[in-house]
Amino acid sequence: MDSSPDTPGLDSTARFSGRAQAYASGRPGYPPQIAAHLARELDLPPGAVIVDLGSGTGLSSLIFLQAGFQVIGVEPNAQMRAQGERALAGLAGFRSVDGNAQATTLDDACADCVIAAQAFHWFDLGATRTEALRILRGPPRAALIWNVRRTDESDFSRGYEQLLLQYGTEYPQIRERHTDEDSIGAFFGGSLFHRSEFEHVTELDFELLTARVSSASYLPAPDHSAYAPMMSALRQLFDSMQRGGRVQMQYDARVYFGLIQTPRTADSGH
User: Fold this and answer.
1) Domain ranges of the chain
2) In this predicted model, what pLDDT tens digit does every residue of 43-53 receive, in sequence order?
């Protein structure tokens, strides 16, 4: 979750209010092989219950539903949650709840795995770890997922990065919080987590590129004085770099996964 540049202290629950439609249409999805990879590496049973913490508009839930799992989306932002419910309405096995990573409202021992995609950096680490252990039945499986944009892959990616640095006052801090392995290690309870990466590319026309920019809450909203000059700069960048009316963004989907260690499991060597 993100926020507008003139509200740097905005609660992460509210950061995406007004941006749900742009988020749903503009944000990249996740490579579907992630679900199969985690099923194998975490020994997930068929039809396992996955709790998606900060499920947003359903982009991360989708690949697990398509792989045959049941998914409970936990999302505190009403607009994002409603967008996700609409997007996934035709798929069996999905339900969403009004809760957050620290207080999901779910029953004890109701899930086989918890995931968080593009969301963990907004959570209260200790409270989320406690809540995950409460709702998980053993073994306590978890996966944290981020789409990490390659910032130096092409002239376009370098220009886009400069635009974010110029107009996104919070962007450098938020960028550094993504995939902070100290925090990830603290969540898993030690160094016994694993990391995998999946390369993928998205192609964007100007409409989709605009939606992607509009989904980032660290960038100006339409009512902000910096919005018009930012969009003018984005248009200029797109026009100079597009090929066939599209530009490419390259990503590494970074997945951290393992069992959440407790003093008991750490002592027993599991």
Assistant:
1) 20-151+171-202+251-268
2) 999 999 999 99
